[in-house]
Amino acid sequence: MALIDLEDVVKEYQMGENTVKALRGSDLEINQGDFVAIMGPSGSGKSTLMNMIGALDVPTKGKVTLDDNDLSELSENELARLRSEKVGFVFQKFNLISSMTAQENVALPMLFRGSSRKERMERSKELLERMGLGNRLDHMPSELSGGQQQRVSIARALVNDPEIILADEPTGNLDTETGDKVMELLKELNEEEGKTIIMVTHDPHDAQYAEYIVDITDGVTTKKEKEDNYEYTSRIQDD
Ligand SMILES: Nc1ncnc2c1ncn2[C@@H]1O[C@H](COP(=O)(O)OP(=O)(O)OP(=O)(O)O)[C@@H](O)[C@H]1O
Ligand SMILES: [Mg+2]
Questions:
Q1: Whose CA is nearest to atom 25 of ligand 1?
Q2: Which structural domain, as residue segments, surrounds residue 106?
Q3: Which of 91, 119, 127, 221 lies at a C-alpha separation of 20 to 30 Å from 141?
Q4: What is the pLDDT of residue 196?
Q5: Is residue 229 over pLDDT 60?
């Protein structure tokens, strides 16, 4: 079975009298080791889809299976545990805790797993060194550049050694050169460690790092080859 399997997933948000249909019946299989770019216009349902895949929210209808676990059968606690073991999250705005140092930010997800302080400090140091930030352990997020903050957040995503990395516009707040470094890093994690990477992007250049694209338009997902991507680019320029 695929690592991630969505069957006819519908997600609706109730806004007073109105129902927003964010996902209209998604069928999607993502295999272990895939590198996927999710692309589509603003409001098309990309982040909603990521929330379903990462077990951050539950579908209105349909089934999400993550590594053979039917998410609808799990309790809140079981979901939280599955998330912390299997999924690392990277966000456009980094989402670092401003009152904690780089190292404390990276070590934080280990706290919830009951690791000792020594283990936490060692693992977070090792990961930050690997991200080229060995000399920034005690810096606060505000004392780091955007690219450095994103590398701290990637280290944090990796700290529990998850199989899956979900990145929602990881280069959205970075200049092209810094963004390319972040993309290289994701590619390396995919190729050298077999991490499954699912990334939302607006940028056709970033999408080239992926193996294939999942297009989403008005809550409808379609798997596409990268070569088909020109359609996406032209559609964006049209509106
Ligand atoms: N918590 C919510 N409550 C109500 N409506 C929501 C909620 N989250 C998202 N929506 C709506 O669902 C639709 C899909 O939103 P989503 O955030 O998934 O889009 P997106 O593709 O990630 O957009 P963007 O590229 O702007 O980040 C939008 O119409 C949005 O307004
Ligand atoms: Mg979004």
A1: 42
A2: 4-238
A3: 119
A4: 98
A5: no
